[in-house]
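Sat 14:20. Reprocessing the chain from the morning session after the first attempt stalled halfway. Input below, unchanged.
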Amino acid sequence: MSQARPQSKRAASGDEAGQLLDTRASIETPEHVLLSYHLAGPIRRGLAWGIDTLVRGLVLVGFGMLLGLSSALGGDHLAGFKSGLGLLLFFLLEWGYFVLCDMLMSGRSVGKKVLGLRVVSAQGLPVGLGDSLLRNLLRSADFLPLGYVLGVVCMLFDARFRRLGDLVAGTLVIYEPRVAWRAPPKLTPPPSQAELQWLPSRVVLSASEREAIELFMLRMHELPQARADELADILALPLAKRLRLRYAHPARFLGLLYHCHIQGGR
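Finished this time. Tokens:
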């Protein structure tokens, strides 16, 4: 079973000044791969909620202005119908906004996207519809007695900053720092024709696979050879099975796949 082990951050400076209440959590997947995440603290989550409240408020105000304009132009004989539409929109924004955002924006609402936050499962996987529905239905309980007091208290006393909805649904809110652009790593030494002839001319990698290989290639020279081979094998084995290929040196194999992926995408 997956476990998350929070580790307190001992120092913060510069861009990290706003993350003093955030921690890291290491989550071990069923495949025994250790993933590290920044856990979002109450301050960032509160700011994201404030942005989302503003967005929903603007939608309601805009809708109200349209109704008012239509009443001024066409009379008020549909006042009851328009009031019903307004109440329906309020209900949908209150109970469906966050669920819809989770599904369409990969666990992020507008506020979370601005603040770099994302909802994931306790195993580090994308949040599902059922989990999103459950955690957002319990917002009403987190709001008690007023202004999300219960939710904030739950976050302050939980090692992973989970409110009641997160505890019940088994979800986490993580912070994803913005990564500065960097040039794709280069394979050294460059691939030979003999190496490339047994590889596909175009290798398709998912975004997560590409990112994992890039991170490995950037760090592999800092690692002991045995550790580098161990990490490379974790990445190379599923790719070799999917592409029906064999390899002798996993790190070199990953570099060749990455080279074909980059060259084929140009």
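The radius of gyration is 24 Å.
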